[in-house]
Amino acid sequence: MSVNRPNPVSVGTIVWLASELMFFAGLFAMYFTVRSVMPAEEWAAETAKLNLTFAAINTTVLVLSSVTCQMGVLAAERFQPVRTGKIFQVGRWGMHEWMTLTYVMGAIFIGGQVFEYAELVHEGVTISSSAYGSVFYLTTGFHGLHVIGGLIAFLFLLGRSFAARRFGHHEATTAIVTSYYWHFVDVVWIALFAVIYFLQ
To answer: Is residue 172 a contact partner of residue 76, using CB atoms and an 8 Å limit?
Structure first.
């Protein structure tokens, strides 16, 4: 009788993500605390400057990147690092193609966030302009840093895969734990988007 032990890398990643969840819970608590003490008229004047349509499009890009990331994981689990057909035969893509697309979509999201920041600064919303500006930039900014961390992880994943003589369990495990982090970042953003742009 054999005992199947859980993968220590996966377990470690999940435990670390649990600590990250506590960090973001603190940011949410800060956001709601400031919202409860800030005058309603002043808060409404600040939230009116948000571009909901643009943020929704940017959010869609990030959410869809979770789908492409998972497709990359499925390719990694069947030990297929590269495509087996032409570039436009998406159904035959390997992990490299799917994870590269995920990286590009994540980079587009960050670019969109930088553009949004520039627009808000032009509107007079800065980190020091008001309490709202402070909590907006802190919550979305820390999330953006986590997305950048995910993009670095994808570069590490792809570099390790290209360097490997043979794509095996170690490379597949790296893809899986990277996807855990990326899905976590996406779920946190969905919550942030709902709170900041819809509840306002």
So the answer is: yes
Contact 175, 157 (CB under 8 A): yes
**CA torsion angle 82 84 88 93 (round to 10):** -40
Measuring CA to CA, which residue among 74, 81, 148, 91 is closest to residue 114? 148
Round to whole Å and give the CA distance between 168 and 183.
23
Q: Which long-range contacts (CB under 8 A, 24 or more apart) does 2-10 make?
A: 7/173, 9/173, 9/177, 10/173, 10/176, 10/177, 10/180
Q: Which domains does the chain have, with CATH numbers?
A: 8-199 (1.20.120.80)
Predicted confidence (pLDDT) per residue in 42-59, tens digit: 999 999 999 999 999 999
Structure tokens belonging to residue 77: 């689990």
Global pTM value: 0.91
